[in-house]
C-alpha cells in the first residue's frame, strides 16, 4: 500500500473512531443542550456565550446522568490563571471533597498522589483533555492526545456508577447516592478554576490511545468527521488516478 493510501485510510479510520460510541455531545454554543438528545448540563452560574461556557470562582457544570464504570471524556478548555495552588477540573463524585482531577501549576493531578510530570500549558491557551476508564479500571488522562497520567483505579474513585455501599445508613430506603460528574466547580475550599470550556464529548467506552491521538491530529473545525471523510475519499481517489498505469 502506498504512503498516500495509508494516510487516506488513517483519515477515514479517525473519522469513524471520533464518532463511535459518542453518547453525549455538548458543543456549548450559547446553551447547555446535548446534540445527542440527552439531558442538558446543569450550570452553577457562569456565562453561556456564543462559542463557549465561561466560569469564574466556584462556577461550573454538572452532568445529570451517571456515565458508568467505562467511559471517555473529551473536552477542550482554557484556564484564566496559572496560580500555583490547586484548581479542580473534574470531580467524579459530586459533593465529595478533594477526590478528582486538578491542575497544580503545570501538572495534572488525580488526588491523592497521582501527578503528571508536567504538561507545559499556559493560561489562555486551549487544553484538549481526554480521560478514559476501561473495563480493567485503568484510568488514563491525555493532554492534546498524549498520555500524561495513568493509574489503576482499584478503589473506584473515578467510577461513575451508583454503588450499593454508598447507601445512607440513616435512610436505608433511599436509593444509593449518585456519582455525578462535575466540571470546574470546587467545594468552596478555594481550589477553584476560572476560564472557559469549548465543548464536552462523552463516550460509552474507553477510546484506545490510537483513537485519542486521532481526535487531536487535524484540529479541524466542526463538522470534523465530515471533513475527515471527505479528505480521506479525495486522497484515495487521487491515489488511484495517479498510481502506475492508471489514468492521469
Q: Pairing-aware structural class of the strands and helices?
A: alpha+beta
User: How is the biggest beta sheet arranged?
Assistant: 8 strands, antiparallel
- State the CATH class of the largest domain: Mainly Beta
- Helical content band: 10-25%
> Averaged pLDDT, please?
78
* Total tally of structural domains: 2
The counted number of beta strands is 15
User: What general outline do the C-alpha atoms trace?
Assistant: globular
| Spatial separation of the terminal alpha carbons | 19 Å
Task: List descriptors.
eight-stranded antiparallel beta sheet; 3 helices; disordered N terminus; Jelly Rolls; 29% strand; 248 residues; single chain; alpha+beta; seven-stranded antiparallel beta sheet; 2 domains
How does this model look, in words?
With 248 residues, this protein is α+β, with helices and mostly antiparallel strands. The protein folds into two domains: 1-21 and 218-248, no CATH class; 22-204, Jelly Rolls, CATH 2.60.120.200. 17% of the residues lie in helices and 29% in strands. It is built from three helices and 15 strands. It has helices at residues 3-17, 209-215, 224-242, and strands spanning 22-26, 42-44, 47-48, 53-55, 60-62, 71-79, 87-91, 100-104, 107-111, 114-115, 127-133, 138-143, 146-152, 182-183, 195-203. The strands form two sheets. Strands 1, 3, 4, 6, 11, 12, 13 and 15 form an eight-stranded antiparallel β-sheet that branches. It has a seven-stranded antiparallel β-sheet with strand order 2-5-14-7-8-9-10, with no helix packed on it. The longest helix has 19 residues, at 224-242. The model is unreliable at 3-8 and 220-224 (pLDDT under 50).
